[in-house]
């Protein structure tokens, strides 16, 4: 299986706790391709969401 930076995959995350994401969600691979080709057996990824709650805070809007 080839995993590349920027790929979007489905991941089975654990049950959510608090505001942490959980269940089956799309994730984007942010780990560099050099590490993806190495013997390391883990991949750094970020869960995706369609919820925009708090986006004004992130963008610096009042």
Strand order of the largest sheet: 1-2-3
How many DSSP helices?
A: 2
Rg (CA only): 14 Å
Largest sheet: 3 strands, antiparallel
* Strand portion: 25-35%
End-to-end separation: 45 Å
Q: Would you identify the regions where 5 or more consecutive residues have pLDDT less than 50?
A: none
Helix content: 10-25%
**Overall tally of domains:** 1
Q: Tell me, what's the shape? A: extended
Overall mean pLDDT score?
A: 82
In short:
The chain is α+β, with helices and mostly antiparallel strands and 62 residues long. The protein is built from two helices and three strands.
Describe the structure.
- This protein has 62 residues and is α+β, with helices and mostly antiparallel strands.
- It has one domain (8-59).
- Helices cover 15% and strands 26% of the residues.
- The chain has 2 helices and 3 strands; from the N terminus they run E-E-H-E-H.
- The protein has helices at residues 33-36, 55-59; strands at 8-13, 23-29, 45-47.
- It has a 3-stranded antiparallel beta sheet with strand order 1-2-3, with no helix packed on it.
- 0% of the residues are buried.
- The model has no long low-confidence stretch (mean pLDDT 82).
